[in-house]
Design brief:
Largest sheet: none
Number of strands: 0
Subcellular location: Cell membrane
Structural class: mainly alpha
Strand content: under 5%
Family: Belongs to the GntP permease family.
Radius of gyration: 22 Å
Organism: Parafilimonas terrae
Distance between the termini: 41 Å
Shape: globular
Number of domains: 1
Oligomer: single chain
Main location: membrane
GO molecular function: gluconate transmembrane transporter activity
Amino acid sequence: MSFIILLAGIVLLIVLITSAKLNAFLAFLIVSILMGLANGMQVHEIVPAMEKGIGDILGSLSIILCMGAMLGKLIAESGAAQKITTGLVDAFGRKYLMWAMVLTAFIIGIPLFFDVSFVLMVPLIISVSKRYNIPVVYIGLPVVAALSITHGYLPPHPAPTALVKQFGADIGLTMLYGVLIAVPAVIIAGPLFATRLKKYMNKPPDTFVSKDLPENELPSFFNSLFTTFLPVLLIAVATICQQFIQQQNIVTKILIDIGDPPVAMVISVLYALYSLGIRKKKSMTVLMAHLTDSIKDIAVILLILAGAGAMKEILTETGINTQIAGMLDNFHVHPLLAAWTISAVIRIALGSATIAGLTTAGIIAPIIATSGVDPNLMVLATGAGSLIFGHVNDGGFWLFKEYFNLSLKDTFKTWSVMETVVSVVGLGGVFVLNAFMH
């Protein structure tokens, strides 16, 4: 019965947003209340659950998204994005520009959370799109595919790292196998799939679109690159200190602290204000106006993500993730396929790749020792399943929709299909590696 309620709730959410043209945040709240009531929750239980869901998601994302928008605006207005894109074209040639962008995204996606890397790459994507008259979805989706894959497959991202521990896997081998699987997944779900996306001629929001500046007014290539990827550097150094340095001292503790994503983003914005603004003799009034403008376009994104968080918490409180997992646990299939399937169903139901992966771990972990399956591959199969078919309860779905200015229908045809391709190719890669090992 709970699964039917879930399905009905998702359908109602889509209808309210598309047919009734209701604000997405309001639609999420309505559906969350109705689904809670339908699952037997009392109003006095529903409201705190929704508040917790909203608080959890905004608590973790609001600083990152706001600081990312500010950094992106400064990068766009200063001409840093223009300088980087020009440098990429000079280095790779326009013919291979997409591949250069995908490679960049894959590299920065390894140490950074998806949301951080997403907001960092958006100004570059839009700058490339505008400067070379390339459809923004055509150039942007392969980049986002690379970010999504690193988020779902590779440590040190939260779910893969937790799965490595719970499955008794080796973090180094998981990284190695993950990269081997990630490369074909990125190619197929990114540049190859993008060949079907040239018809999407929608224009992105104006926040990250700036006029081309003359060459003599642009910051240097090194300054542009360093400022843009400073969060990557700070977070990567912190990750290395946490993962590979056993004896922590005052220096490593400071590096870990400043590499915490919200702290790293604040430091990066402050540095960008100096390196791309004050040092270029721009007034604080102009710079603060840029920061204010940057927040306007992401306010609606924050509300939509908050609504998705409320719905996710209602579903978690009703225990539907455990019910679905329990149903699938009774099927007698290959352990790798079982891990992928359970993770995929929970992902579709709840929208969170992290929750899907961690919930699956509790079910699958006990059978690893008796099944003889490589635990590193179990991590990757679970991670691949957790990425499948992101839709209206997936925060990434709304980030992609709003930043690239797509309709709901077109977001399904681009983001949701890309995520499904990533998931299926990942499962195929896991079985190929498993065949070589046996």
